[in-house]
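Newbie here. two chains, one complex. Structure please?
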Amino acid sequence: MLRFNRQIIPFMKNIFQILFIFCVISISSCDFTKTNIDPNNITEDKLLLNQRLPTLEYFFGNVLASDIPKTVGNTMGQTIYIQGNTGLNTYLYGPADPSKISLWGSSYSRVLFTADQIIKDADSKNAPLYKGISKIIYAVGLANLASIWGDVPYKQLFNIGDFPDPVFDSQESVYDGIQKLLNDAIIDLTNTTSALKPTADDFIFNGDVAKWTKTAYALKARYHLHTIRVRQTSYDLAEAALANALQSNADNCVFKFVAGNPSQTHPLYNERVGTQNTQVDTKFTDLLNAKNDPRLPFYSTVRSSLTTGKRALYGPLYSSKDSYMPVITYEECMFMKAEITMAKSGKAAAESDFKTAIKASLERVCSEKKWTSDSGTTALSIIPITSSILGTFINSQGNIDSLATDADVWKRIFEQKYIAMFLQAETWNDYRRTKKYIPEADGLPILTPRAGNALPRRYNYPSNEINYNKSTPADKGIFATVWWDN
Amino acid sequence: MVLTITRIVSTLFLCLTFYSNAQILIKGVVSDSKEALAGVTVIETGTTNGTVTDIDGKFSLTVKDTNSVLSFSYMGYKAKTVVAKTNANFTIVLEEEIKQIEEVIVTAIAIKKEKRELGFAVQEVKSQEILDAKETNLVNALNSKVAGVQVVSSSGSPGAAARIRLRGSTSITQNNDPLFVVDGIPIDNSGGVRTRDIESSNRAIDINPDDVASMTILKGPAATALYGIRAANGAVIITTKSGQSGKTTVSFSSSVGIDQVNKLPQLQTKYAGGQNGVFIPFESRTGKPASAAWGPAYGDPSLPTGVQFYDNPSAFFTTGFQRNNHISVSGGSEKSTSYFSIGNFRQTGVVPNQDFERTSLKLTNATQVAKFLKITGSINYNLSTATRLRKGGNWSAPMISLYRGASDFDITGGYKDPLDTPDAYLTADGLKQKTASVYDNPFFSVNKNKNTEAINRIIGFVQADLTLTPWLTGMARIGADVFNQVITENYDKRSAENHAQQSFKGSYYESQQFKQDFNSDLMLNAQHKVGKDFEVGLRLGQNFWTSKSTRIGVQGYNYLFDNFYDFNALDVSGSPLQLSPTSRNIQRALMAAYADAKVSYKNYLFVNFTTRMEKASTLPANKNTYLYPTINVALVFSDLLGITNKKWFSYGKIRAAWAQVGNLPNPYLTTNYYSPVISGGFNGQNLYAISGDLGNANIKPEVSTTQELGLELKFFKNRLGFDATYYNTLNTNQIIAADVSPTSGFGSAWLNGGKIRNTGLEIVLNGTPIKTTNFSWDASVNFTSQRTIVEDLVGDFQYIGGGAGFNNGSNAAFVGYQYGVLTSPQRFKRYGQDPNDLTIRKDLPIEVDSSGNPIIQSAPKGFYIIGNPNPKWFAGLRNSFTYKGLYFSFLWDFRSGGDLINLTRGSMNYFGTHKDTENREQATVLENSVKSDGSANTTPVLKNAAFYNRLGENATVGELWIESGSWVRLREVTLRYSFGENTTKKMFMKNLSLALTMRNLFLLTSYSGIDPETNAAGNDPSLGKDAYNMPNTRSFLLTLNATF
């Protein structure tokens, strides 16, 4: 028995040693690198610029068409929640408000991030036109964030490895950054030597460099005018930029959706026929009704409801399947011009610019197709608004020269701009800026708070920032004013 | 056996040489401690002279002389010897021999071990217990039977998924499911997660409980060291029935039963549909608000005739039927055994037109082809089919229509059989539904919106067992689990789903998935005795596992014809072709080598050490191999102290184990990928965007370290057993798709970052209080108390699991709190509460504003902690009584704690349909409230639409809807009669029995909605959400079993 052990045990030891080594070797011989490569999706090296630009514009269009109307539009009394998060109607904002989280998140992780990727990629591939367009879109996205929230992260973005907690740059420095982006874009757009040129992949302008350049100048003017209360040079800088901005409605910068599946149609179409959480605020439609505004049926379809009185659904202009959403329009340029002229030279000089602005807005809006039913699925023939109706309206609203005081003029100008900028983010910027002109009224008199004594002046930082970015400053609340609102 | 043979031989031998004359007669009676023993062998030692005691235990034997020795022997008793002497009458009392029948447990890789040597907690559930549960889904059969195991079935629908956790959940994004192993082959238990709002079954449902011989539950990493990473959350080892050598046995079982809804939410019966007290006609109810029940009271003159309360749920829910048939043939010789079975199960639901059917075929054969080689092969084929509805908040879901829409409309249309009468739910022209609200008429929905699932599955293996030398054995096994799943989903063009999905004319989706898992094992096992007291064993093994899943799906919208859904029948007039394909292929592989060394001393001290090296494909290629050690020790201290098998104390053992194992990341997250943003592109262009989660090229596996201590005690000759286990598991390097700030460019990033600690106590008590010849009473209790705390986490807070369509009441991991706490973004402001305290302080009064309405606070970080869905403890208590041929057993299930958020109730209050809202016209002061200055609140408020409007449609202020999920439940009652031999022999049967089973007979709970055993998202990390979940059922079944 013992001899058996003496022979067997060493033998056993050897066998097991060999076997264990075999096991180890057999593991190491197995190569798993190919197993962990996703067979259904591509990696970044395969991606082309003419796939990235349409993606950027699509994300951008969605922010303008979905997030902004439901947030800024609600705060500015143009849209209202009829179900779902109705607390937002009375400014019960909290960090967990999904609509603000979405606006913040989409702007950063979709619009700005994609634009940033294109800028870097275009640099390496020498495609300055792509760089220019992306910088313009980046600037608008960033401006939405900064104008709404105040201090926001800008310099330390998209590098979670080096900057896990991006600092919040001052609104002032962000605005300087925006102007620089637009200036650089204008320069990039002059460089047409590269073979890589956007065409059909540029949904907005089909690669038209001249129109993009005009858009950049118009945006420069817009963002200069935000700072009129804190910088003296704003008017002159804006005026200079406006000289090269949009010249007619043909230059309008818009993003157009298509009549297809729910991801392709205008988000407000989806909202009107599907989710139905928000609709147009009847106070807004009442305002237009009182003025006999020809734009009313395009903005909203008003119906009487058995139980709640009136209901104002989104109208054909912005909730048909293939509606568009403006980025910046000719009428906005003319409103800006009217404002500058009024500020510098007085109401007489400003009247013609003002009337041009109103006319441009009416022509843009009222050239859309009207519906005869609420379905909004079939486009009907254009019913032209007669020039006499237009003329009457323009004269009745545009005759600022005959108004008694300057304050009345400012009220009229901004009232018309508020109506023309329906569902655009500029309404809130304008509202806060009018304090310069009408200090005692604290903004637009036609706009009264739905609750409390005042309208919000900014949004609080959303929870996905507070929870995950340690640099987020303590929130000052929705009535605290941002840098240029002082 | 040997002793007897020796005795016979020696007596024969001696007989030839020995002969005596002086004989005396010995008489006596033999008994044990209680009664006389018949059939005791009485032998004059050294001779062939002997007899046997009679029925009264009496014997008489003539022996040689006074020196003769008599020996008494009887099975189960210690043999006794007495010298004849001169006593004519003996009174012999025999002592029972308590032979420790060693329990053999099937552990990892179909290795059988004696329970004695195991240093970790293990529990077994036998075939009869599984069958008596009469559950469709094998996972549900484990409910309330095993300490540490929590099973939550998602509903009572046929083929519903069940969520099983051994020792709770410890991973935030990764797998928390145990590994399911069938005959040594790990199988797929995917599915059961709510995808596309339709729940599929989890794949363990394909296993026919009639074919299961036993299930062993291995909890904790200590027990699954041999399965590695895939079994980090424990393993459910299923052993199927196989052939027995001997006479061929044919078993037949047949059962029929009915299912009924056991609990439903409560509707208000006083108010009609409408808003602000104004009735809205049915045709105008084209949106959610218009479908609410805030109209005038029934009987109000403004109401049209015929508008009254209709108990639509009673008209709609029906009795479900189930039937099950199973035949098995088993037999074989010493060399070869076979088992063959065929079974068919079918169940229809309490919701009409819902069903589940399973047909299974099994063939197993084990043959000893040579002395040293045994080959075993098994094939298990399964076909499962199901028909289902959409769940939860979808507008075609029956629960939404019955409970969120007003009840002032008769969904039966006045017909006796609305289910089969289209006129009951369709207008005469067939163009529209007849419905009370914007939601689908339930009868329309079950007829026209069909979702089906069909799975063909084969699980099989071939195994070779080699006996190289008496002390060295080897095993090689290859197994496969292959299935094909076809899913179809559609909603009719008249369904309300079109409205919710933006005006398409119907939708049809079809997908095919093909999944193939292959598993191969190679093992060498050596056992050797060293010296007198030691025994050593060494096992070396190699395992390779690969899994590949291919899924292709096509989604089409806008169908031309009413009842014909095919991709050739799409309507392209007016809008472009709406057809979009998706495809998803996923592949993973694991390779492992392990060594398992065991030393035992005197068969009472066992030390077992294992180490496993594992290489995984989903880890970064440059670092994908990790080493996981475990050690466990078992000491039968009663043997050591010599106190085994004493009068009242029979057995004592202590166990200690320490183990480390990992948990793997999902495939393909080591880098970033780009995928199309929209199906069909946009305006003729291709849109690609980066996937939302930032990839991590340095991702590491999660590491789970467990310490476990156990104590096993048996008393009163094994009549009472006690087994307690305490464990402490720390799970670190949590793999999280951590929510990150969007300034990173992403919504979430894959990171290792979190520490979760899971501790618990498991106690099993079993005993036989009464045992006589004809009657016995067995009782067993299993008790579990678990606690999982999030100790550290990236970002301090992460959401867990699927939202199941409702964004509130989400589960979260928040540092310092239990895993999976329920959260909501708003709460009532309470007087005196620190704003940094994120919990709900029910002891403080609610602050109201000047109108008497509660003030609502928004969480500064986006969430408040409103409840804890984890039970404090849960237990199962079984009592079984056997009297001759009768068997009566009942199983009680207790649960203490475990909050649910009753989103159904919150939503029903918002829409005015819940019984709570019957008080809508009585203004009352809000309970437990004060004004903002702390003074008493005297302003009454009406709990009407405006009141609930402020609380949010989907319970944004969730604290109101948190209810306790405690329960006392009579889960199983079985009454079985086994016919005696007289009857069975006449019918040529070996066994015949008839059983009556009642499932879920009685439920005592304070939860106001459906049965609190429910989970909105099915088999998902989330828990505790009731969002229009389908109700649970109680069942009554009759089963006939016959063996030939």
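Moderator note: The two ends of chain B are 31 Å apart (CA to CA). The longest helix of chain B spans residues 2-17. Thread marked as resolved.
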